[in-house]
Amino acid sequence: MQCGTPAPEGFEENQIIEVPAGDLISMSTSQLPQLRDLGLLDHLIGVDTALYVNTPEVRELIDAGTLIEIGSGTSVNVELALDAEPSLVMTYGYGAPE
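The structure assignment produced for this chain is given below.
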C-alpha cells in the first residue's frame, strides 16, 4: 500500500508492505534483474550470497564492497541482516511447507 494511506481491512500488520519500501535485501538471484529494471538497485543493501549473482550491475556493487552477504538456508546471519536495518527482505519459498 502507498505510504501514508489507510491500511486495507482484513490483513494482519505483517502482511502489509508500505511503498516506497526503502532499503532491501534480496535472497534470490532471480529478483535482481527485476530490481535493476525497476531502477531500484540504489535501494539494494544486501544479498544472500554473491556466489551466484550474474546481473552485471549487481556484480559491480558486490565488487565495490557496497553489499552485505547475509547467507542462505539454515546459515542466514540474522544479526547481520538486522544490523543493516532493511525495510524489506525479499525471500522465496521452495520445498515442503514444513
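Interim note for the steering committee: The mean pLDDT is 91. The radius of gyration is 15 Å.
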